[in-house]
Amino acid sequence: MVEPTPDPFSRDHALALDAADPLARFRDEFVVPDPTVIYLDGNSLGRTPRRTLAALDRVVRDEWATQLIRSWDHWLDMPQRVGDLLAPLIGAGPGEVVVHDSTTVNLYQLLHGAAAMRPDRPVLAVDEHDFPSDRYVVDGVAGATGRTVRHGFDRLDDVAVVVRSVVDYRTAEVVDVAAETERAHAAGALVVWDLSHAAGVLAVDLRSAGAQLAVGCTYKFLNGGPGSPAFSYVSTELHGVIGQPIWGWFSQRDQFAMGPVYEPRADIGRMLIGTPSILALTGAEAGISLTVEAGIGAVQAKARTLTGYAIDLCDHLGLDIRTPRDPLRRGGHVSVVHPDARRLTAELIERAVIPDFREPDVVRLGMSPLTTRYVDVFDGLQVLAGLAH
Ligand SMILES: Cc1ncc(COP(=O)(O)O)c(C=O)c1O
Hints:
Blueprint: H1 11-19, E1 38-39, H2 50-67, H3 72-75, H4 78-86, E2 97-99, H5 103-116, E3 123-126, H6 132-145, E4 148-151, E5 159-165, H7 177-186, E6 190-194, E7 213-216, E8 231-234, H8 278-294, H9 296-317, E9 320-321, E10 333-337, H10 341-350, E11 353-354, E12 356-358, E13 362-366, H11 374-388
Parallel strand pairs: 1-11, 3-4, 3-5, 5-6, 6-7
Antiparallel strand pairs: 2-8, 7-8, 9-10, 10-13, 12-13
Helix pairs in contact: 1-11, 2-8, 4-8, 5-6, 9-11
The structure holds pyridoxal-5'-phosphate (PLP).
């Protein structure tokens, strides 16, 4: 074990922090083919879990190739099973989460369903800076249902549904889910939360926050793999009440009766559409299982210290940030602001340091608690500072 050194801005200090990190062993659970690559984009696409390779191999060889269509006996309820695995990570109960389709599709479904529960309210509300898909879906559903869109959440008395990200994808700022859900509900509005940048890095507690509806992706901090399916959360009290706009056979009460009339299920399966991607769900299950094993409390604690460490280093190196300094108000990434952010990002990638660029001036550094080391943050920021000054 490396002893902590008095200089908090030395590389040895970063190594000491890694040596003391209770989650350090989880990095060995991932494929790291080139240890010289400093990966700071696990908040966009998480690294590849080793167990995903084994799981995909098993599902393809033993289940698809060998058992063929007989495997649908246990594939059929996989969206719900993976949902139940994920549920405790977001404070949901069993039977309240289902993993299927993409965040955009799931958001469209829940927003449509929620808007139909507030037929007399003419407005949908979204932040004008929220993630593009979220804004576009809100615009689309507003147009299709004869509503208008309001940017911002100050006035909610005529709002049918609020669509809101828990963690801002540009700054990592966290919204108080409990307080904002309560305020919206008190005004008579429903809320669909987008947990894409929160799931697998923050211990979001949907049920105790009173949240009823949420979506989010599994390919970022949950390490589900490229295009792994998203999740829909619907709290139990809305099961059997909320409808959805895409009437497919997977949400049909007696799916294989092939009946003439659509009769939706009364449970979370009501959100399903058509045949789920079993291979993609296999990746999601493997990734989610790692965060379950690590414990979301420990993951959140490391996210806070790792981002705090990055912010201290940025201050020391003269890099400006646009991420809250209060650890309770930030997610798992740190946004460095620079007028040449696009060029800096390209130059970092040339030097095998991988962050991402966000318009107009942000180099976004993702810190994924199961795979990012303190020394990665240290080394990456030295390169960034060298290019920025
Ligand atoms: C906050 C947020 N919402 C929605 C999406 C869209 O997700 P998908 O491409 O899975 O539909 C993303 C994708 O990164 C996101 O970050």
